[in-house]
Amino acid sequence: MATVHVLDDYYLAITLLITIAYQLFFFSIAFSLKFDKLTDFAGGTNFVVLAIITLAFSGHHDARQIVVSLFIMVWGARLSAFLLFRIIKTGKDDRFDDKRDNFFKFLGFWIFQMIWVWTVSLPVTVLNSPNITQYPQPPFNTGRDIAGVILFAIGFVMESVSDIQKYRFKTQQSNKGAVCDVGFFSWTRHPNYFGEIIMQFSIFMIAVSPAAYGYVKGQAYNALYGTIVGAFLLTILLLFVSGLTLQERPGAKKRYESGNNWEGYSRWLHRTSILIPFPPQLYAPLPTIIKRTVFLEFPIYVFDPAKHSDASRDSLQAEEGRRDGGQ
After folding, report:
1. For residue 120, is pLDDT > 80?
2. Could you tell me the pTM of the whole model?
3. How many helices (H) and strands (E) does the chain have?
């Protein structure tokens, strides 16, 4: 099959246009019908669409191209299928309660999703592009390839299994109020995020092999290495935007103020690494400085009842009021 040249020889423009069109199509349905069930499905399946199109356009079905394309397709398809299943069961997505009826707020989320999909797809997009496939490719047996496949397998198992573990735990009535510390959640509070991060870095590790081993030169060399921005963006989003910051302190605050097994939850926070899997017996006694640096448990995630709880502030104000009244 002949290589397809369209707009630019890195496939950046065509994949961006496809992503915009794909997301706007689903946005129009979601906003018009006030329908939450397609949002995450549209994100995950967009990765599949871009991988299929760029691989088909490339005209060169080298083993490395096939592997990285399949990896991102499998990841995107599994993620979208699981999230679709979960939203069908729960009925609605609480993330959109303040956005669903506001055109521009809701559109803002979808624009954000466009950027996420297009950027994280970059290693596959660029590897499949004519500016890379014009060069000879190293055999698919390099150290980077092998390490990338192993890391992807580890990440895929961690993300997919932990999603199932948490879903099953939360749907069992006997676990109401209990802390999900089963399976991978006994070693890390967010095994699905850790798995997702190492999967994206593994895809980059494989995709960059032609440049790393000197087969690709010049601007194409820089382009391949530049695609690491996709894995970094995903990591930044999970650490500082849409992942840990929305779950760690807010989740602990909700537990504390509702009196929902706060003692058990607090013990779990103390003994379980926030992201990087680590034995709880070894993690619990570690100095706080090690947890805050090596294990990435930054102060922005930590819940301090005295500082962050509305209940604590209300109690303090009431106590001050009683003191003032007694004087």
Report:
1. yes
2. 0.89
3. 17, 0
